[in-house]
Write a structure and sequence with these properties.
The protein is of the alpha+beta class. It is built from 15 helices and 43 strands. The strands form 9 sheets. Strands 14, 20, 21, 25, 26, 27, 28, 31, 32, 33 and 34 form an 11-stranded mixed β-sheet that branches. Strands 1, 35, 38, 39, 40, 41, 42 and 43 form an 8-stranded mixed β-sheet that branches. α1 crosses α14, α3 (about 510-520) crosses α15 and α4 packs parallel to α7 (about 580-600).
Length: about 900
């Protein structure tokens, strides 16, 4: 393909060739602290400040930057100036110097940048952040619970009255809990969050959440109310992962501080102690798998209000913190992101209704109902309907083994109070994966499509990536992938939102590129990487296949391919954001883990434990090969991390070379170019991980292409092949073969899911068992093909040598089966777009590069280097 014409329009205006004095055209924008906008309750004393650039200076590049931090909005009080040379740190515009920050303080900051000519740009607008406790030692030591044990089912309620006698300037509510909490101030629910705080190893680390409740306080008497759910802290139903035996399991507890700052500058705190009152009430049962039960006939009216008579309640019980660490929850909360009305409702009489929604989702349902007092209504959730229109849960409840007759998987139960004006109920302490809801009542009720509303809830990460092309099926596949991803994001990345809800490690590392191309997820993954630290077993060094885990998933299964998330995800955060924080924090855990792997080596130096190319179609790839291959990758990445952090990389470099030799000696046929029998996944893994002997790459890639072609371009792999095969076909010149595979609509294929089955999320297996025995319809781990569409078709890629999109690689492929492709990605540096259209023998490529960055456009044998702005290039086919 020949490029013969190039146009460039740099944003909106041309700049005079000789710019004298201040640069009034460029200004830092989108200022964020710790990758969050205007956050409150931060704990770090070395916050990372990041920004983008807006302006129309042609070819703008920063030379240095100055961050000013102050305690006053005019930036004059106690200003501290931080200088960032070359306008960046860790590969992106940022500053991570340690500051002498104090707890409970609002800080203001600006950034001023100088361009490559030394001209000062406009200073940014003022951004803010607010600190929390900063250290666990500053957190109030008093925790409360009630006098019931962990087997007692009704949820504990707590309340505290207090008086406000002066004008309030600001009020913050800091809440840590073991188990979920729902809070009320003067009867009003605090915030929009659900399922706070995030899931952790509760005996190692507890998160606290900060709320601005200034607007909820009033003069005179006030009341704080709280109800605590079990969450992952006190799992009461039985499933195969042994959470009911968790070492931390106990009755839910909380620690709370309402910190009121008055207009005169004085501060008053209302903290948890034994002056709080406790009882139980309508929240009769809750479990993360079974769901919620709420009996409205048991609710004491007004218990959340200041005037309520709580003389019949008991004093709260003082208890201890479950964990030595109590730290801020510095990631987006779980919130309602959409409300959906049913597309259909089928009635089976006056006691049974089935509601259908237009997509598979994660969340809860809000019920609007009117009926006789004591009427019991169940809402049962699932992904499949039987032929008769009733709900089928067989594909998702196989690992659930309840021992109590009233526990039903993914079912919420509401008992009516009999209010003649009608009642509204939304569960509080669970979430479900579903497209269909079967509602059954103990007595006749009249329901319509307006009676049930689905609330989609997940960790509310910001979408940053879009993809569209001329093939509608590929667009639906992208949408299904992104929907499946957020459906599996609830303070940790999970495998599925219904039957497991577990943080499977390989699921996450296989999906990390589609995740970070689709959503701004750094804070979620940095939190989850801390869970890896807490998960590692003392004295052994291994980690479990699901994280968090109290005991299940350690040992030889799932093994090294799964455990590689310990290395792959921190590397991905470095690639996409340019930050080494997770690498630095995890480094000791990585060292211990690699020492553990040495104890698992066979006499040949390989690893034979674990699982590899999970849910393969027909051809299984040798597990010893894949386990050893990812052992090699661990050491390659560890050597890289050592270099980044100023440590000795040589032991890991040497180990990687040894493993490379072992793999090639035992599993590679140099004559045929086949690895481990030449499966599609085996060939893809070898090329993707980079241990093919020099000069043999083209042969190995040709074998991969031939294996695919002889199979009529059908895939024949599982988890590892889905990540590596399309990418390696493309890298080595066989993109049209990758497209033929992608466009298949018979099983096994991604297109089969979309076109033949009509799935709106990605399933767990290539085809569904006829008996619905073992396949969720809401997994994301086979979805890396959507990242491939962004990388290979739209061509948007990071440059590994300049992380954080400081330099961008644009590598679109103008494939025969598409007329146009458009991708966009809002990187940490700003918006990147790549769009191409074919008209006859011409292809027009339009690229937008963020101000302050450069992009290298590679098409065929041509390469162009572009600076910030929008550029139009044309190529002949």
């Amino acid at each position: 393909m020949k490029r013969y014409l190039i146009y460039a329009s740099v944003l909106t205006a041309l700049l005079l060739t000789a710019c004298k004095g201040p640069n009034e055209q460029t200004v830092p924008v989108n200022l964020r602290t710790e990758y969050l906008t205007e956050p409150i309750g931060l704990d770090t004393d070395s916050p990372r400040f990041t920004w983008e650039y807006d302006g129309n200076e042609e070819g703008f590049m920063p030379s240095r930057a100055e961050v000013t931090v102050s305690t006053s909005p005019d930036m004059r009080q106690d200003p501290v100036k931080l200088v960032v040379q070359n306008g960046m740190d860790e590969g992106l515009p940022s500053c991570a110097d340690k500051l002498a920050l104090t707890p409970f303080t609002r800080y203001y900051w600006t950034v001023t940048v100088w361009d490559a000519g030394g001209h000062r740009c406009k200073t940014s607008d003022v951004a803010t952040f607010e600190t929390g406790y900063m250290q666990t030692a500053n957190h109030p030591a008093t925790w409360i619970t009630d006098n019931h044990d962990k087997e007692f089912e009704p949820a504990p309620l707590f309340r505290k009255t207090f008086s406000v006698k002066k004008n309030v300037r600001q009020a913050r509510l800091y809440v840590a809990s073991a188990g979920y909490h729902e809070l009320f101030v003067n009867g009003s629910r605090v915030g929009r969050n659900y399922l706070d705080p995030g899931y952790t190893h509760f005996d190692k680390r507890i998160l606290y959440v900060t709320h601005d409740v200034t607007g909820l306080l009033r003069d005179g008497d006030n009341a704080l109310g709280a109800v605590l759910g079990n969450g992952w802290y006190n799992v009461q139903s039985v499933a195969v992962w042994d959470f009911e035996k968790a070492r931390w399991r106990d009755r839910p507890r909380m620690s709370c501080e309402l910190r009121i700052t008055y207009a005169d500058g004085s501060v008053e705190s209302v903290v948890t102690d034994n002056s709080w009152r406790t009882a139980t009430g309508p929240y009769t049962y809750n479990d993360i798998y079974s769901g919620d039960m709420f009996d409205a006939t048991l609710e004491a009216k007004g218990w959340k209000e200041a005037g309520f008579d709580d003389s019949g309640w008991q004093p709260a019980k003082l208890t201890t913190s479950p964990a030595p660490l109590v730290v801020a929850q510095q990631m987006p909360p779980i919130q309602v992101t959409a409300e959906l009305s049913p597309v259909n409702m089928k009635s089976f009489g006056s006691k049974l209704y089935v509601f259908s929604f237009d997509k598979n989702m994660t969340g809860l349902c809000r019920l609007n109902v009117k009926g006789e007092r004591g009427t019991r209504i169940t809402m049962k959730h699932g992904e499949i309907l039987r032929e008769d229109g009733r709900l089928e849960q067989g594909n998702i409840n196989i690992y659930y083994h309840p021992v109590k007759p009233y526990e039903i998987f993914q079912t919420d139960v509401y008992t009516l109070s009999g209010d003649p004006d009608g009642e509204v109920y939304t569960p509080s302490f669970s979430y479900h994966g579903f497209q269909y809801v079967e509602v059954e009542s103990s007595k006749p009720v009249t329901l319509t499509t307006e009676s049930l509303t689905a609330l989609q809830i997940h960790t509310n990460v910001t979408p940053v990536g879009t993809f569209r092309c001329s093939n509608p099926m590929l667009n639906k596949l992208w949408d299904a992938t992104m929907l499946a991803y957020v459906n599996n994001l609830h303070s940790i990345p999970t495998d599925c939102p219904q039957r497991e809800k577990n943080g499977w490690t390989a699921d996450a590392h296989a999906a990390i590129d589609l995740a970070l191309l689709g959503f701004d997820g750094i804070t979620v993954y940095e939190k989850w990487m801390n869970d890896f630290i807490d998960n590692q077993r003392d004295g052994i060094g291994d980690i479990s296949g699901i994280i968090p885990s109290s005991s299940w998933g350690y040992g030889d299964w799932p093994g090294p391919v799964w455990d590689a998330a310990l290395f792959i995800i921190p590397q991905a955060l470095y690639n996409y954001y340019g930050t080494t924080r997770s690498i630095q924090q995890l480094y000791p855990s990585m060292e211990r883990y690699l020492e553990y792997l040495k104890t698992k080596e066979t006499p040949d130096g390989t690893l034979s434990n674990g699982i590899g190319d999970w849910v393969f179609w027909k051809t299984q790839t040798n597990t010893e090969y894949t386990s050893t291959a990812y052992y090699y990758l661990d050491n390659v990445l560890m050597a890289h991390f050592a270099g980044l952090t100023g440590k000795d990389a040589s032991p890991y470099q040497k180990k990687a070379e040894v493993l490379k030799g072992i793999i090639n000696k035992k599993f590679f046929n140099a004559e045929t170019g086949e690895y481990a029998g030449g499966t599609q996944a085996a060939q893809g893994v070898a090329l993707y991980l980079g241990f093919v002997p020099e000069g043999k790459e083209a042969l190995v890639a040709k074998v991969l292409r031939d294996k695919v072609a002889v199979n009529d371009h059908f895939l024949d792999f599982g988890l590892l092949g889905s990540k590596t095969v399309p990418a390696m076909l493309t890298r080595y010149g066989y993109v049209e073969d990758a497209m033929k595979m992608l466009l298949k609509t018979d099983a096994p294929s991604w297109g089969y899911w979309i076109e033949k089955k009509g799935y709106t999320t990605l399933p767990e297996t290539w085809t569904m068992n006829d008996k619905f025995a073992d396949a969720s319809l809401n997994h994301v781990f086979l979805g890396d093909v959507s990242a491939w569409m962004m990388n290979a078709l739209a061509g948007i890629n990071y440059d590994p040598s300049a992380p954080g999109f400081n330099r961008i690689l644009i590598t679109p492929h103008f494939v025969n089966d598409l007329d146009w492709v458009k991708g966009s990605y809002h990187s940490v540096r700003g918006l990147i777009t790549s769009e191409w259209r074919t008209e006859g023998s011409l292809v027009t490529l339009t690229v937008t590069v963020p101000s302050g960055c450069t992009a290298e456009v590679r098409v065929g044998n041509s390469t162009d280097v572009l600076q910030g702005g929008t550029h139009i290039l044309q190529y002949s086919r």
